[in-house]
Amino acid sequence: MSVAGPPGPVMDRDEVDRALVRLDAEHEAIETSLLALQDHAGRRLLEGAKLTGTTHERWLAAEGQITLLWTYFDAYAGALNTARDVRERRRWPNRDDLLELTRLLRGRSVTVAGGSAAAAAPSITGPAKLTEQFTLEELVARMNDLYAHSLDTVVAADAVWSALPARIDLLAAELQRTRQLAHSVGVRPGEHPSGDDLEHITRELTTLREQVVSDPLAFWQPTRGSSAPGGGRPHTDRYDHAARALEDVRREIDAVLTVRQDAELRLGRLRDLLSRADRTLAEARSARGEVLAKIAASEVPAVSGPPTALQEQLAMAADYRRNAQWHRLSPLLESLEQKAEDELLRARESLTAVTAPLAVRAELRGRLDAYKAKVARHGLAEDRFLIERYDAARRMLWSAPCDLRVAEDAVLRYQRAAADALAPRVPQQGGPTDRRGEA
Predict the structure, then answer these.
(1) Residue 158: predicted pLDDT
(2) E-strand spans in 147-243?
(3) pLDDT digit string, tens, across residues 218-233
(4) Could you tell me which residues are beta bridge partners of residue 113?
(5) Domain boundary, last residue among 259, 274, 304
(6) CA neighbor of 416 nearest in space, from 376, 356, 368
(7) What is the phi/psi pair of residue 116, to 5°?
(8) Mean pLDDT throughout 386-406?
(9) How confident is the prediction for the chain on average, in pLDDT?
(10) Which of 21, 43, 63, 362 has a Cα-to-Cα distance from 384 of 20 to 30 A?
(11) By residue range, what is the domain housing residue 339?
């Protein structure tokens, strides 16, 4: 059986020494990394946790990889110690020493049992080898690859555990405070939509925390294109959705609290609005009777009574307040406030429509008296023709019932007569003109 020769040119003493220094440095770096991985908080948590799903599968693989890493590292350290022993035989190594060192440092001098490798990474191409042989450089590359995969699993799980459970716990504490506040204002499951929402959020946070603890890698989102171990971030969509839902419930409860604080004042304003509307409608009904008695040949609209539905709803709102049913009082008050404003506006419009004939009569009376005063200022107060026209218009305006159309015609006749009397006249030959014939 022939002995294999050295892999390539035989190394000289300087090359051997430089290689040993480099390999020693790599040995120290690998050992430091392995010890850090062994002591990593995420690895300890993974070892002690009851895992499920994706995390359970990946951790089984990672455990085998970490075991294989130590196997490879021990083999690497053994090969490096053998090479160091050969180098330390003599200060100036002979050719046989250099041949041996070249084989150890550059050849496939490291033999690893295949069982460990098969346990960590089962072969899909056929039966696993009983042993595998590596060069030191190949072994370092293999260890780096296994280390990166193992560290990625550990770092990702640790990142999710560090981020999500604490945030879920804080949100759960806020949820508990919100539930107590909601209960105090009558927001309860089955009675108010926000109470049902709180129950749903509670179940979601409980389920989410259990899943995060048992399967953290299901909530890990790797960064695309990143090959660094642990490149990514926790996937928080479900948590964010629950947080937004809780914020919506808090706003609803704040609105209910505002109703509780302002309920009496708002109920008082509602009572005042409806009372004013009732008084206005009563005034409109009274005015309608007056108009029908004093104004003839005029269409007067009917006046409806106060709406009993609003009074019933107002009584219901007061009952809600007495029984602290704030979640029911809030929408009812908003509806009643708008309806009460509309009712007062309707009552005022009804009063205006009913009293319109009286307003017309008052305007005609004022116009008649204004022309009479104007005529008096110009010294025509004793003009018999104007007095007759004024008296005719006044009788019509102050009689009951008053025919507004006829009265308006009489006022217009008096206005025209007054205007004619006040107009400057050009002296003409002949006798005076009799204005009575102008009618």
Answers:
(1) 92
(2) 220-222, 232-234
(3) 999 888 766 666 678 8
(4) 131
(5) 259
(6) 368
(7) -65, -40
(8) 82
(9) 82
(10) 362
(11) 260-354
